[in-house]
What does this fold into?
Amino acid sequence: TGNIIAPSSPANTANGVINVEGEYRPVVAIGGYQKFCLAVSRMSAFSMYPMIVVVFVTKCKATMTFLSKTPVSVYVGLIAEGHEFHAYAGRYIAWDVWIHT
It folds into this structure.
């Protein structure tokens, strides 16, 4: 059917879980709209991970100073603009949380 349901157990589908290799997972999507919403929420959640790392690392001054003296600084030109990158990441996370919710 293309839906994310528990075909062997309508009770599990009604409860909003599927059984995958003996483990219950809270994923049920019936219809195109629910599958679309599930895909958007998954993509927004995974796209947030790098930005959470950026927010943390850009405020670690000792780490930033260390990285600025290594070859990594050639590839990460944003080290010099740490606060601007931190602010951008914060705005990205804010929008991403809004989309995810």
Summary: DSSP finds five helices and two strands in the chain. The first strand starts at residue 18 and ends at 20. The chain has a mean pLDDT of 82.
